[in-house]
């Protein structure tokens, strides 16, 4: 398989990003260093990451009937993403994320708006697309019952369902049972399973009971195989400008390369994520296929 057909079911946000010398304390006012507006949303970010790498991507989600929504749709279309199944909801604002970038990290508050206006029926209306996809990719910035509806359709049509459980929340057992691969960080996996945050990562992966691909920032990734053995894939060293969307880039790229096997897919997805943090904004640094290959060639 050269270019898998990917369907992303998830959120679309406008990111309002403030640069700051450090994160403020509660009740404190700080003078920021920059302000920018970027395209974002975990779903849209993952869709763009996959599309930039040259694969066919369709997105299922919702925007509001407002300027932000029209801008987001036009942007996704310009990235070559099929937006036919994105609903425009008349009575909801487009999702937005208030992001502070400081100290080499970020804080994000999402106001979901239209992202929480989609329903399981909307997902079920997209059954034909799910049935013809090679990978279904979702996250938790849309209602849980919509994620579950997508997972059920993926199972019905024997399609891999990759779930990036972010932002973290406890997963219903039924959903966990339908997941082909879970792609959390350590904190998200603990919350997904309802376990203490300080549970060792090896124990978390064992307790999950499903295949897990854990992202660990600069430490790379950790994943289990069908025999329960753990494998690591190191990250690539770059100088980060903005880490927002690094996980999304990893997920979108992984979906594109999944058919190459875990080792190669995680190597390429790590490289895409590394490139993504070298520019400001969630999507600005996401590489094209040529940029990714050029980066990898330099690492050899
Ligand atoms: O993962 C990064 C994304 O989280 C941002 O683009 C923001 O919109 C939030 O959804």
UniProtKB/TrEMBL annotation:
Pfam families: PfkB (PF00294). PROSITE patterns: PFKB_KINASES_2. Activated by a monovalent cation that binds near, but not in, the active site. The most likely occupant of the site in vivo is potassium. Ion binding induces a conformational change that may alter substrate affinity. SUPFAM superfamilies: Ribokinase-like. InterPro entries: Carboh/pur_kinase_PfkB_CS, PfkB_dom, Ribo/fructo_kinase, Ribokinase, Ribokinase-like. Its EC number is 2.7.1.15. Belongs to the carbohydrate kinase PfkB family. Ribokinase subfamily. Catalyzes the phosphorylation of ribose at O-5 in a reaction requiring ATP and magnesium. The resulting D-ribose-5-phosphate can then be used either for sythesis of nucleotides, histidine, and tryptophan, or as a component of the pentose phosphate pathway. This is Ribokinase.
């Amino acid at each position: 398989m050269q270019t898998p057909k990917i369907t992303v079911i998830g959120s679309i946000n406008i990111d309002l990003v403030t640069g700051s010398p450090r994160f403020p304390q509660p009740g404190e006012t700080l003078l920021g260093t920059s302000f920018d507006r970027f395209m974002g949303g975990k779903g849209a970010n993952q869709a763009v990451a996959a599309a930039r790498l040259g694969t066919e991507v369709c997105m299922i989600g919702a925007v509001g009937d407002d300027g932000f929504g029209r801008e987001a749709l036009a942007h996704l279309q310009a990235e070559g993403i099929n937006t036919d199944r994105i609903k425009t909801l008349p009575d909801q604002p487009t999702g937005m994320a208030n992001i502070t970038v400081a100290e080499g990290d970020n804080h994000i508050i999402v106001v979901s708006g239209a992202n929480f206006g989609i329903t399981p029926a909307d997902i079920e209306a997209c059954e034909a697309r799910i049935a013809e996809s090679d990978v279904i990719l979702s996250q938790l910035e849309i209602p849980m019952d919509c994620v579950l509806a997508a997972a059920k359709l993926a199972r019905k049509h024997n399609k891999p369902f990759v779930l990036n459980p972010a932002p973290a929340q406890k997963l219903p057992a039924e959903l966990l049972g339908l997941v082909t691969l879970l792609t959390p960080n350590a904190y998200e996996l603990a919350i997904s399973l309802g376990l203490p945050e300080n549970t060792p990562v090896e124990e978390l992966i064992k307790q999950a009971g499903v295949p897990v691909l854990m992202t660990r920032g600069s430490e790379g990734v950790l994943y289990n195989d069908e025999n329960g053995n753990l494998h690591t894939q190191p990250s690539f060293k770059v100088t980060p400008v903005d880490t927002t969307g690094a996980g999304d880039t990893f997920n979108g790229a992984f979906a594109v390369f999944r058919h190459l096997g875990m080792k190669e897919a995680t190597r390429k997805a790590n490289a895409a994520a590394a490139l993504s943090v070298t520019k400001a904004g969630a999507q600005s640094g996401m590489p094209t296929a040529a940029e990714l290959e050029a980066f990898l060639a330099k690492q050899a």
